[in-house]
Amino acid sequence: MPKAKSLTQKQQAFVAEYMIDLNATQAAIRAGYSAKTAYSIGYELLIKPEVQTAIETAKKERAERCRRTVDDVLLELGKIRADAMQIVTDKSGHQSMLNHAAALKALELEGKHLGMFTDKPKLELNKPEEPPKLIIPLTIPSEILQKIKERSNSAGNISG
């Protein structure tokens, strides 16, 4: 079994800086790489298997220090969402959700964690000898597709 490559000092600094805000470009700059090439360098570092391993190790160590797991965070988000979505009635009898903004944010964070929507294309690395695959998410939730179909059918645009 080949020995795992060790990180250079700059790569170790990048990992430490990346753990601050998970921003590869800023981490590269803070680790001492050129600001002009930091975007590319950050990306290149993130796809190196040894850097990926170091980042995953650092994340696990941080989770252990904080005694927090993904499950803990998701459970708390669920509680926040449920609390924010309570229906309240004002003095004039109008009903509304307690806190739309908090409910929306909790749902957004849960959705992001579940990979339901992304702002950026996803880069998948399979095997070192294969080129990376760029995946651009084009999935539309079934509820939205159903509404589109209903509206299109009512307008006479789609049959069946």
Summarize the structure.
Keywords: Viral genome packaging, Viral release from host cell. With 160 residues, the protein is mainly alpha-helical.
Q: What can you see in these coordinates?
A:
This protein is mainly alpha-helical and 160 residues long. It folds into 2 domains: 9-66, Arc Repressor Mutant, subunit A (Orthogonal Bundle); 70-155, no CATH class. 56% of the residues lie in helices and 8% in strands. It has helices at 9-21, 24-30, 38-46, 49-66, 70-84, 100-113, 142-155; strands at 87-89, 95-97, 122-124, 133-135. The strands form 2 sheets. The protein has a two-stranded antiparallel ribbon. Strands 3-4 form a two-stranded antiparallel ribbon. A hairpin with an 8-residue loop joins strand 3 (122-124) and strand 4 (133-135). Helix 1 (9-21) packs across helix 4, helix 2 packs across helix 3 (38-46) and helix 5 (70-84) packs antiparallel against helix 6 (100-113). The longest helix has 18 residues, at 49-66. It is extended. The mean pLDDT is 82. This is Terminase small subunit. Pfam families: Terminase_2 (PF03592). It comes from Deefgea tanakiae.
Descriptive terms for the model:
SPP1-like_terminase, 4 strands, 160 residues, mainly alpha, 7 helices, single chain, two-stranded antiparallel sheet, Arc Repressor Mutant, subunit A
Report on the biggest sheet: 2 strands, antiparallel
Q: How far apart are the termini?
A: 59 Å
| Approximate helicity band | 55-70%
N to C succession of SSEs:
HHHHHEEHEEH
How many structural domains? 2
Main β-sheet, spatial strand arrangement: 1-2
Radius of gyration based on Cα positions: 22 Å
Number of helices: 7
Q: Which term fits the overall shape?
A: extended
Question: Mean pLDDT, nearest integer?
Answer: 82
Strand content: 5-15%
**Count of β-strands:** 4
Low-confidence stretches: none
Structural class: mainly alpha
